[in-house]
Every structure is written in C-alpha cells, then in structure tokens.
Amino acid sequence: MSLVEPITIRFGIVGCAEIARKVSRAINLAPNAQIAAVASRSPEKAGAFAKANNVPAEAKIYGSYEPLLDDPDIDILHLPLPTSLHLKWATLAAQKKKHVLLEKPVAVTVAELDQILAACEANGVQFMDGTMWVHHPRTAKMREFLDDKRRFGELRTIQSCFTFAAPESFLKDDIRVKPDLDSLGALGDAGWYGVRAILWAADYHLPKTVVATPGSVTSDRGVILACGASLHWEDGKSATFHCSFLTHLTMFLTAIGTQGTLQLNDFIIPFQEHEASFSTSSRAGFDDQVTRWEPGPRQEVAGIDGVPQEVRLIEEMARLVGEIKVGGAGKVDREWGARSRKTQQVLNAVKESIEKGFVPVEIA
C-alpha cells in the first residue's frame, strides 16, 4: 500500500562502477528518490562521477566508503562493488542501519549471503538485489499469463539464455574475469539472469537437482567464461540455461506449459526503453492442410507509460524504505532476500557440478 504522503528517500552510491551510472540516472528520474552522496576511493573520482552523472550539486562527496556509511542523512546504499567485497560492505551497511541495494551476483557463496541477510534482519533494514527486469510492467503481465490455467496450463519446461561477445580488453581486465574480485565470472554475471528467470517462471520453487552442461569454458585464471546447466524438479518440471562472455548478444526466455507457451527475446534489457512486448501462444494447432498455426501467436505489449524498468526498481526500493520509516522494521519485505538466496543457491550448485565433473548436485 502506498504512503499517503510519499517520502523522498536519500540514496548513497558506494563505488563508481559502470552500473552505478545507470542506477544514478534511475534515482534522478524516480519521483520518490534522490542521490544525496557519492563515495569512491578518492574524492576526485567521486566528484568526477557526480559531475558526469548529473548528481545534484548539494550531494556530498566522499573520498572513502566509511564516511558515507556513517552519514546519518542517508537512507539507502547502492553497492555496485566487486562481488568479493559484498560481504564486508553490505554487512557494515546494515549494521549502520542503512538499507541495502546490492548488485548481482549478491555474494560469492550462499553462506556469505546468509551473513548479509542476517545483518539486514538483525538491524531491521530492507535488502534488494539489482535485478531490474523483474520490476518491468511486462514481467507482471507475463506472470498473469503463466498463472492463467486455461491459457497456459501447468508449467512443464523453461529455457533461458544470456550471452554477449566481450572484447579482448574485457576478457583481460574486467572485474568480472578476475578471480579475486568476481570468481563466479559469466555464471555470476550473465548466469544470474538466466537462473533468476527460471525461478521466476517456476514461482520461485527451487529445483531438486542441478547438472552443469559439459563443455563449459574457463579462463587460464580459473574463471568461468561460458557455461550452462539443466534444472530438475521433483514434479517433473525441467529447465535449461546458458550464459557466456564469448558469443553474440542474446537474451531469450521461453516457458512452456500444457496449454500455452510464452516467449521473448529481450527479457533482461528490452529492445526499446519505454515499451516491451512478448509472444504468447495458447491451445495452438494446425489448419486442415497443416500450412499454418490456428490460432497464431499473439504479441502482447507492456510498459508504454515511459518509465524505464530501472526507475521502477528504485521507486519500489524507495517505497519500501519509506514505509519502514513510517511503520518500523516490521514493514521490511523479506521476500526480496529470499529470492536472491534461491538464485544464489542454484548458481553455487552449478559451480559445484562443474568442479566435480558435471555431476548432479542436489539443492537442500
């Protein structure tokens, strides 16, 4: 339920990674949020980031992270830091009573994420990861189709893929290929989206077993550059995903039920910022001469109100924090942390399967 009088929620940006540019733009566009501070490892870098990204002139500039965490005027910290630093800084943020918007992958292991979530719960702060597409109105509309037993039926299988062809400079120097910074590599970066999409389609019911697909590619530093896996549920559902830094930009999602199919080719970042579509097919067959589908697929459009999905993420996080400020820690929505944890569980199971020679790994 929305507040009667919306509160403007103050964000602090901790670190000036590339994704922080996109999030800063979203905060600037969100009606219930503002950037109140930026911190980097030097005041010069933080100041340059603020100037380049239209950060309000009155925002504070910090040359290290600690003063921002101690700033009493900040409500939420956006943490676009390397994954290996998430445990330290997200835990400290929660201990300082700052709400946490954490970039994905949210942790290196489930055990690390559990420490982060425990700190958030102990201090009554909201946790949310930075997966943007789940906040798009298209996603809600797709959920309606999947929940329609007459049109879609029972979910039986899901396929997802996210790949992009990274340049040599990325494969050599990007944070996402450095084992001490982001040891999950393509699995943690691109694979997070595929796994999250599968769990979303399955209404966040965890699979029983995960099996990595033979043929994964690992760098000479031991970081995953491409991999895939199959997921299996006790009720017979199955899913597959593939992720890679080595092949052309692709991002598709297909969910198949007993009565219908949902498909889209831009589920992470829509082809157009202010409008998105997806295809549905229901109870389809062929005509008498088997020359065409009857009925044919239907194209559904959503998100034509001009609000990008990253702005919706910021609006939702700010709304939740605003309600906590009014109603207390009892208003914290712990479902966001639970969804992040399930995604992390599957990622870690895939990595374990790869390391053990592509054997099945059960998720407890």
From TrEMBL:
Matching InterPro entries: Gfo/Idh/MocA-like_OxRdtase_N, GFO_IDH_MocA-like_dom, NAD(P)-bd_dom_sf
MF (Gene Ontology): nucleotide binding
Annotated ranges, domain GFO/IDH/MocA-like oxidoreductase: 141-262
Domain Gfo/Idh/MocA-like oxidoreductase N-terminal: 9-128
Stored Gene3D superfamilies: Dihydrodipicolinate Reductase, domain 2, NAD(P)-binding Rossmann-like Domain
Similarity-based family: Belongs to the Gfo/Idh/MocA family.
PANTHER family: GFO_IDH_MOCA-LIKE OXIDOREDUCTASE N-TERMINAL DOMAIN-CONTAINING PROTEIN, PTHR46368
Protein known as: Gfo/Idh/MocA-like oxidoreductase N-terminal domain-containing protein
